[in-house]
Amino acid sequence: MSKIRRIFPGGNTANGFCSFHDNIISEDRNQLYIFKGMPGGGKSSLMKDMAERMIEKGYSIEYHHCPSDPSSIDAIVIDELKICLLDGTDPHSIDPKYPGITDKIIDLAQFIDKSKILEKKDDIVEAKKNNKIAYKRAFNYFKAAKIIHEGIVDDNKRMIDIKGLNNETINLIDRVFSKEPIEINSNGFKERRLFSTAYTPEGFVDYTDTILEWITDIYYINGEIGTGRSMLLDRLLVESRIRNYEVEIYYNALIPEKIESLYIKELDTIITSNKHGKTKGNTIIDLNKYLDSNNINKEDMNMFNLLVEKGTIDLNGAKENHFILEKAYKPSVDFSCINRIREEIYNEILTYI
User: Which domain of life is it from (predicted)?
Assistant: First the structure.
């Protein structure tokens, strides 16, 4: 049975664009195809088509979605074959580490009709400039939201029963790590960092359910901002390191220093504060019982939500500029050449089966 997971390798955060693209596939790989090219050049469509073909053959696929357009794909990983196809263009520019051995650049820009694209030069330059402005505005709103968030954390920390929270943390650590470890197929990462959620032009997009679906034990950490969810996950990560376990770390979409989910592979266990854990979890840990909720500042929470909403609106402006770029480039691309490249890659992938 094919296992399908959906992930974000990057995020539009309070720190700007945050990239974990070097965590898509490890150096322990058979093949990495890096696509270079232009908007509207068929990179995402090619990768989607390749993924669908391999799913039909029974292989598991990771879809790595673009946070600036979640319907678009930044990369796919064919798990069992250790093969990856990815978009290596800006803002997550990637170059081959082992050219000619495992890594290959596919330059789709060679299939542009230069005479046609030059007619659109002014439109392209203007759209790129406006795109940069829209992202800057969005990131400024997210940065302001983070400041408000930090204030809420500080306020709520003062209303926490620290002793009770520490006891809860110790008990959870004992419970999680009492499980007998299993043998795993390593993907080459001791610690793999990604996002399962993202702020996008479509709003907040959450693919955490596609990760939880395949895991045996799910612990859901419930709690308001500042109740210690991220701190608890930090403690669990430290314990995983002590035991030399492989982990996948999924970070908060707005504040990428904060952990949202921790998957411990040898225990087939995930601990998450994501809302999907509430419905899919085997165990719920409620940190709100250690919080005096009578004095929560609702005005700050409303301001936080408003700033995030405004940032998301500006992301939509960036997407509109990207559509202008795609519209400008598409008529100049020779897609028959793209199709030929796609078949060449597919036939090459089949040699690894």
Answer: Bacteria
